[in-house]
Amino acid sequence: MSWIYLDGKFVPAEEAAVSVYDHGLLYGDGVFEGIRAYNGRVFRLEEHVKRLYDSAKAIMLEIPMTEEEMAAAIRETLRKNGLSDAYIRPLVTRGVGDLGLDPRKCAKPTVMIISQKWDAMYGDLYDVGLTAITVTVRRNSPAALPPNIKSLNYLNNILAKIEANVKGGNEAIFLDDAGNISEGSGDNIFVVKDGEISTPYTANNLKGITRLAVIEVALARGYGVKEANLGLFDLYTADEIFVTGTAAEVAPVTKIDGRVISGGRPGPVTKDLMEGFKEMTMTTGTPI
Ligand code: PMP
User: Fold this and answer.
1) Is 108 a catalytic residue?
2) Where do you find CATH 3.30.470.10 in the chain?
C-alpha cells in the first residue's frame, strides 16, 4: 500500500482525495516540486524545498509549515513507504475556495506529498537517444508567467508535449517569443559543439536543479560550459544534444526536427556526463 501525506496526516493512496472546490484543480492555483531519492538519499532536497517556497512566495501562497518541516515530511513519507529510490511530488494548492478565482476566499492551502518508485523516465531511449521536436507553441512569456514559478498550471508544457507526440517525437523543445531556444516540456536543454557545452540563459526557462548539478559535473570533468542565446541553427549543427531534469535525469537527444545528431547515437560528452551525474546521485544527498 502507498501512503500519501495530506495536510499533516498519512492517508492510503486510494483514500487520498481533495475537494472539487480546491483551487489547485479549478485554476491550477498552486505550486509543486519533483524530487528524486537515490540509494537511500534525497538528491538536492534543500534546493528543491527552497524552490517550492520561492514559487509559493511569488504567488503569495503561505505554506503552513516551515521549510525544515517540509523537508522532514518528505523524508518521513519515503520512510513510511519503505522507499530508498523514488520520485517524490510535493504540492501545495491554494486550497478550498468558491467558484470565483479570488485566492482570498481560500482559507488554507492543501499540502500533499506523493512518492513512488519511478525508474528511468525514458526507458530504453537512454541508449539510443530521444527524438525531439521544436514546437510551434511558444514558452509562456516570462512577462505573463515567470518560468521560475513552478506552478500547477502546466498547460503550456502539455500543449508542447501534445505537439511533439503528434509529430512523432519523444520530447518537445520550446522556443521563446524572441525565437531563442528555451527548454524542453519538462527539462532543460544543452548542446555540445567542438567540445564546449552551452545551455540557454535561465530568463526564459526553469532554473533546473539537475541543470546546475550537470554543470557542476561537467566543470569537474574539465569541460567548458557557457550560458548563451541559442537558436535553431545551434541545435541543427550541434555535435551532441541532451536534456536534463529530475524525472528525465540526463537524456541524450539524437534526432531533432528530422536532423540526425551525433550519428544517431549518444555522443561521448553526453555519455560521460550521464555517468558523472549518476555517480553524483548515488553518493550525495540527504539521508532518508
Ligand atoms: N523545465 C521544466 C519546465 C520542468 O518542468 C523541469 C522539471 N522540474 C525542468 C525544466 C528541470 O528542472 P529540475 O532539473 O529541477 O527537475
Assistant:
1) no
2) 3-117
Q: How confident is the model at residue 1 (pLDDT cuts 50, 70, 90)?
A: confident
Q: End-to-end CA distance of the chain: give it in Å, rounded.
A: 19
Residue (of 101, 186, 91, 179) closest to 141 by Cα position: 179
If you search the block for the grid coordinates 526564459, which residue do you land on?
Answer: 204
Say whether 72 sits in a helix, a strand or coil: helix
pLDDT per residue as tens digits for the range 192-211: 999 999 999 999 999 999 99
The residue whose CB lies within 8 Å of the most ligand 1 atoms, and thus the one to mutate among 51, 157, 246, is 246
Over the stretch 176-190, which tens digit does the pLDDT of each residue have?
Answer: 999 999 999 999 999
Q: Select which of 57, 150, 161, 167 is catalytic.
A: 150
- Supply the ipTM of this predicted assembly: 0.99
In degrees and rounded to multiples of 5, residue 197 shows phi and psi of -105, 130
Closest C-alpha to ligand 1, atom 12: 208
Nine-digit cell string for 148: 521560475
Q: Is 140 in the pocket of ligand 1 (CB under 6 A)?
A: no
Residue type, 118: W
The answer to whether the pTM exceeds 0.95 is yes
For residue 2, report the distance from its CA to the centre of ligand 1, in Å.
25
The percentage of the chain sitting over the pLDDT mark of 70, rounded to a whole number, equals 100
Q: Which fold has domain 3-117?
A: D-amino Acid Aminotransferase; Chain A, domain 1 (3.30.470)
Radius of gyration of the chain (CA): 19
Mean pLDDT of 137-154: 97
